[in-house]
Specification:
The protein is built from 19 helices and six strands. The chain is mainly alpha-helical. The strands form three sheets. Strands 1-4 form a two-stranded parallel ribbon. It has a two-stranded antiparallel ribbon with strand order 2-3. Strands 5-6 form a two-stranded antiparallel ribbon. Helix 15 packs across helix 19. The longest helix has 31 residues. The relative contact order is 0.10.
Amino acid sequence: MTARLDECEIPELDLGAGRTLGRSIHRADLFGPGKTAQIARLVVAIQRAMGASPGTPPASVKDAAVEARRAGSDVVESVRELLRKPALVMDYDEYLSDLRTPIVRALADRDAFPLNVPPGVTQLDEGLTRSWVQRIRRYDDLIAPALVPLKLIAMYGSQTHEQELTRTMQIIATPPPPDISSDIFTVAHEYPAALMTYALVLGALAKQNYSMLRAATADVQMSLPGHERVPFILTSGSQSIVGIDRWRVPGTVLCLEDDGAMPTSEEIDELLQARGGRRLTPVSDHLFTVLAPLYQQHFASDADYAGAFDQAEVLLDAISEDARAQTERFYGPHGGYGRYTWRHRHSDRGPETVLLEEVRAQGAGWTPLLAGLFGGSSERAIAALEAVATMAVHVRERTY
């Protein structure tokens, strides 16, 4: 942002790629009657640039979080009752079935969620970009009622609750039929499962409940052509939902809206023509914003929440790398490699390094291993985190 300390003209300095200082950069006027508000706006912009402050979450998710904090919340009390009493496992299974059924039914509705672009559309343009953004927001609203129950199950669930949670994630993550061609809406259809996975992993980490984390990730298996069964986490990630290069434009517009901006047609065209800055991890950034209302209360600050989110993504990538090492002839992309890659690009001890040091120091006593992650093997965990660290360095050097 350009910061003006007094009334003055901003020179039209060329910033490259068709951008100028006066026309292409947001401005903060740190003087006059609006000085205090503008300073606050600048601080928020800096925090968001550092990745420590989430944007504005969907109203549906915010409302669900507020309702959960209300004394005597029906949702919280129902889940609490089911988790407290292991004898109610049949009721718990039925509860999860009832929770996922409307989601599964909606996702299977091809009128509501078509998997192909409209006939005649052959390239990414403003119309397709805005349609994609609206699609993701509709997914957010669809999953919102399930987020609080999933959070509580991940935080407080026990061994008797693992199987049905795994089954729920397998059903949600089931890929479209093989006769559906792959395009921008087909891969976007992975987003609901990704949102639910992130919600579960953050919940499990908040209470160090690694057995439920395993049930929500490594245990979720799906069938792929040429393979018997592979973990869902191996086939999907925040990056796979948007792809690379100009396909990051829809995700960038989504994040700009999260930050309170409403990109104009001209601004979207600049993004499409690579004259504007595209987000490098837009789905990861959006998930960080979406889940903030559910988890900010569990952390002392936005920075602590951001750190927990980084740890969640590193673990997801490590579980994916471990699954790759245990699976024959799988040549798909490597994990999500989300916002932690750019947030720690100038750090000698990124979150992947911290976790790697932990497992090396603690060996077989590392808590995630005791819950069955990485097959309980410290060697597998170290190999997976080393692969994540190597890939993170590669991503940072190549991209940032």
